[in-house]
Amino acid sequence: MAVYTHLGAEELARLIAEYDVGELVSAKGIAEGVSNSNWLVETTGGRFILTMYERRIDIAQLPFFLGLLDHLAAAGCAVPATIHDRSGEALREVDGKAVALIEFLPGVSPNEPTPAQARAVGAALARVHLAAKDFMPQRENDLAPKDTSRILDKCGMDALRSIDAALPEIAERAHRLVEQWPDDLPHSIIHSDLFPDNVLMLGDEVSGMIDFYFAAHDMMAYDLAVTHAAWCFDKTGELFDAAVGKALVEGYENIRPLEPSEREALPLLAEGACLRFVASRAEDWLDTPADAHVLRKDPMDFVRRWDFYRDQGAAAFA
Amino acid sequence: MAVYTHLGAEELARLIAEYDVGELVSAKGIAEGVSNSNWLVETTGGRFILTMYERRIDIAQLPFFLGLLDHLAAAGCAVPATIHDRSGEALREVDGKAVALIEFLPGVSPNEPTPAQARAVGAALARVHLAAKDFMPQRENDLAPKDTSRILDKCGMDALRSIDAALPEIAERAHRLVEQWPDDLPHSIIHSDLFPDNVLMLGDEVSGMIDFYFAAHDMMAYDLAVTHAAWCFDKTGELFDAAVGKALVEGYENIRPLEPSEREALPLLAEGACLRFVASRAEDWLDTPADAHVLRKDPMDFVRRWDFYRDQGAAAFA
After folding, report:
1. Domain spanning B115-317: which CATH class is it, in words?
2. Of A45, A80, A229, B223, which has the fewest Cβ atoms less than 10 A away?
3. Which segments within chain A are labelled E, that is strand?
């Protein structure tokens, strides 16, 4: 959560002039995104989010992410379209960094989601899956269990133990999960990271889904499982909200009914979702000095969820 | 530049409901303010800045600052008015912290001010001085040379030398300035910190002056000198822009002509302005670990300005 780059008013005005959106009226650096700088920009023509890509994101993949937004927005999904500049480009360069101007969408991210909100999110996710099927560019998911299990291994058992004594055993559990992982369930482009932070809502309506920078070709039911793990627990993963979970899946199935094989796989797919966040959080934890004034997210929050899915099996989705 | 507190959407919606401003539509934490958290909030009734006071600011003084905004806005100055809640209060409490809802003003802060912009800022500052004269509450300036000289002394000569070998001599120079400091020039409430960051402009028009949290009863010509030091140099204080300086003073005098004693005192007052920023930056520098990922502002940027005013004297304002 930061703005990593200072963009002066004059520089911003020059950049905005490259788009057909009127003149700059206001610009505020906003505290969103961990790998981008973002500004909420107002012009005489409307409001926009200006994103500058700082790190972590492979610039070569940006056309995939931005093209996907345009494809989904054109299909009526609640995602922001990109604004193309006067020469038709969605990406420009400022100070050697890639920038994109993106539609501003209203809404706030729920902190304590209700079943009605989860139902709407399930439906919105299903609409993305259906609309993305005819998006031609492809991107492989590089955070599937085989990848995230390797991330845990790379951390090293001693380092994992320094975070929590239980983590080395979790790395072992990850190996078994990789062997059981299915690959034959229906695919589309999936969001892969649809936490409440990445959903804007007006009351019980989804007004926007954002941050598609993990989107990739993968199993749709896996995306539903990621969203389940992200929406149905308190932060620490200790409390499961069955009503929110049930509404999420129902909302999804109202738009795209799951095949029996998908439904059966959900608990295992949810374990894979937990592995992913255990691994990325463990890696970040070890990369972040304890005194760095940055909030380190505890990987154990997702070990608890993983335990829940493993213990409950199909009951977690009943 | 940060948002220090997480405010959930539900908590924000409950807070906004205490004001007669419609329903919450959007809220973005913005990267402004060093001692506050700020959100750009949109409701069905308009746009606002929600400020949560985190530290540095003495809560007991907030009614002074907020009352001043209302007084100046009512007098037609380009400052944001505060929004009062349904019971008429400008201040509320959330999680034990004071919050205020403030009018949103358009505009962007110039990074490379032009003479036309400086002229408009000079005029806007003079209007504040005139309008503030009948604001009854008083607040003493606790960053006058006697105070800021003491801050330098408290840093200690060894610590000052660790920043720059020239700083201990500057602390001596500060003592001499305190002895020469006038007190008999015309007073009003002054802004005291009108850097370009704290001015919003639409082209050459001032659309807003913000961040009045250093406002205090003091000499008006001192405020003009602070603004001169803040607007007429490049960041490092090496390059002086005479055209910007001339336009600033002219713009001020178009609204409020300086008395001869004020004009004569300007170079000395500008030295006092430089002392203030040398002292606060030195103090922050020593408080901030070198590896804290926070930009430390170099106190020497204002030693260079100080040298300029001392060497040039009246010529700096010719």
Report:
1. alpha beta
2. A45
3. 24-30, 36-43, 46-53, 82-83, 92-94, 97-103, 187-190, 199-202, 205-209, 216-219
Pick from A4, A5, A30 the residue to mutate for testing the B interface (most B CBs within 10 Å).
Answer: A30
CB B35 within 8 A of CB B62: no
Residues of B with CB under 8 A from a CB of A: 1-3, 8-13, 24-32, 40, 42, 106-112, 200-202, 292-293
Angle at CA B255, nearest 5°, toward B252 and B256? 75
Place of tokens 């989107």: A215
What residue of A is the nearest CA neighbor of B105? A26
- Return the domain boundaries, chain A: 9-103, 115-317
| Structure tokens that stand for B243 in this block | 């055209």
List the alpha helices (DSSP H) in B25-166. 62-74, 115-132, 145-155, 157-163
Whether residue A31 and residue B27 make contact (CB cut-off 8 A), yes or no, is no
B151, B167, B157, B146: which is closest to B300 by C-alpha?
B167
Place of tokens 């004034």: A293
| Contact: B29, A293; criterion CB under 8 Å | no
Q: Tally the C-alpha atoms within 13 A of residue B60's C-alpha that lie toward its C-beta.
A: 2
Per-residue model confidence as pLDDT tens digits over A99-109? 999 999 999 99
ipTM for the complex?
0.85
Report the residue from B12, B26, B106 with minimal CB separation from A26: B106
Measured CA to CA, the distance from residue B253 to residue B119 in angstroms comes to 10
CATH code for A9-103?
Answer: 3.30.200.20
Is the Cβ pair A32, B29 closer than 8 Å?
yes
Partners of B82 in the β-ladder: B102
Q: How far is B213 from chain A (nearest CA, A)?
A: 20
Q: What is the pLDDT of residues B126-173, one digit of tens each?
A: 999 999 999 999 999 999 999 999 999 999 999 999 999 999 999 999
- A26 and B110 within 8 Å at the Cβ level: the answer is no
Distance (Å) from the alpha carbon of A107 to chain B's nearest alpha carbon: 5
